[in-house]
TrEMBL record:
Record's GO cellular component terms: cytoplasm
NCBIfam families recorded: nadC
This enzyme's EC code(s): 2.4.2.19
Species assigned in the record: Beijerinckia indica subsp. indica (strain ATCC 9039 / DSM 1715 / NCIMB 8712)
Name of the protein this chain belongs to: Probable nicotinate-nucleotide pyrophosphorylase [carboxylating]
Superkingdom of this protein's organism: Bacteria
InterPro entries in the cross-refs: Aldolase_TIM (IPR013785), NadC (IPR004393), NadC/ModD (IPR027277), Nicotinate_pribotase-like_C (IPR036068), Quinolinate_PRibosylTase_N_sf (IPR037128), Quinolinate_PRibosylTrfase_C (IPR002638), Quinolinate_PRibosylTrfase_N (IPR022412)
Claim: Glycosyltransferase is one of the keywords in the record: yes
Metabolic or biological pathway: Cofactor biosynthesis; NAD(+) biosynthesis; nicotinate D-ribonucleotide from quinolinate: step 1/1
Alphabetized CDD domains for the sequence: QPRTase
Keyword vocabulary terms for this entry: Glycosyltransferase, Pyridine nucleotide biosynthesis, Transferase
Broad class of enzyme this protein falls into: transferase
Location of the Quinolinate phosphoribosyl transferase C-terminal domain: 121-286
Family (UniProt): Belongs to the NadC/ModD family.
């Protein structure tokens, strides 16, 4: 009996990642390049260095980090030992970098910026995923992302075991309180949305109270965003919905509160801070003598 193959970690096409890495490198190189390394390190000198984990967590961002080295100098070779989506502990060597020493140092900071930030996003997501593991709820991210890095940050959430909410304003409708206010009410907002949505476009409505939820269910909606409700209120909302729509909880979600929120029976828990405020995972580039 053969074992099932390990799941393949999701990745983005190079075509999407390369412009982001190029922009970061151009920002760092400025007008004259790496004047420190150019002055100190001979052009012919070779080196072998290691990307070392200094904290436990989940790896993400290796595709961007690898590209940073390769775009600076195609002669740099990157050997990955812990690919995106894998769990690491302090002291683990994530990858070895070998090639022209000057070029490695020039790409170092950009590579570490991507790898540390995105691994931090993945690690924060994994902590929340673990907190709700025995429930039906899935942790998902939002559009609260770093400008320009949305695709990479949402990928990092997936590396951490979470899922993605909509990627932008154009792939699903989310009717929030200001939409409702400008439309004159929930029912009218939903009717207008249905008239404007294509047959493949899902419609979600944000509600703050059970009365609003009742009105939304009467009109019909694909998903309801239960905003800043207590676990007790969320449980009542799940009973009211009774499977007629996807239920999503948001607001005040932390590793400490996530379990109680998930136990209410909601389908999704959306969290903004995992992308916009996750702590960087400490990863260093160290010279191998």
């Amino acid at each position: 009996m053969t074992s099932a193959p390990a799941p393949i970690s999701p990745q983005l096409p190079r075509l999407l990642v390369e412009p982001l890495v190029r922009a970061a490198l151009l920002e760092d190189l400025g007008r004259a390049g790496d004047i420190t390394s150019d002055a100190i390190v001979p052009a012919h000198q070779q080196a072998r260095m290691a990307l070392n984990a200094r904290q436990p967590g989940i790896v993400s961002g290796l595709s961007a980090a690898k590209l940073a080295f390769e775009l600076i100098d195609p002669a740099i070779a990157v050997t990955v030992h812990h690919p995106d989506g894998t769990r690491i502990k302090p002291g683990d060597v994530i990858a070895h970098i070998a090639g022209p020493a000057r070029s490695i140092l020039t790409a170092e900071r950009v590579a570490l910026n991507f790898l540390g930030h995105l691994s931090g996003v993945a690690s924060a997501t994994a902590t929340l995923v673990a907190a709700v593991a025995y429930t039906r709820a899935q942790i998902v991210c939002t559009r609260k992302t770093t400008p320009g890095l949305r695709s990479l940050e949402k990928l990092a959430v997936r590396h951490g075991g979470g899922g993605n909410h909509r990627f932008g304003l154009d792939d699903a409708m989310l009717i929030k309180d200001n939409h409702v206010a400008l439309a004159g009410g929930i029912t009218e907002a939903l009717r207008r949305a249905k008239q404007g949505a294509g047959h493949l476009v899902k419609i979600e409505l944000e509600v703050d109270t059970l009365a609003q939820l009742e009105e939304a269910l009467a009109e019909g909606v694909d998903a309801v965003l239960l905003d800043n409700m207590t676990p007790e209120l969320l449980s009542q909302a799940v009973v009211m919905v009774a499977g007629r729509a996807i239920t999503e909880a948001s607001g005040r979600v932390t590793p400490e509160t996530a379990t109680a929120i998930a136990e209410s029976g909601v389908d999704l828990i959306s969290v903004g801070w995992v992308t916009h405020s996750a702590a960087v995972l400490d990863i260093g580039l160290d010279f191998c003598p």
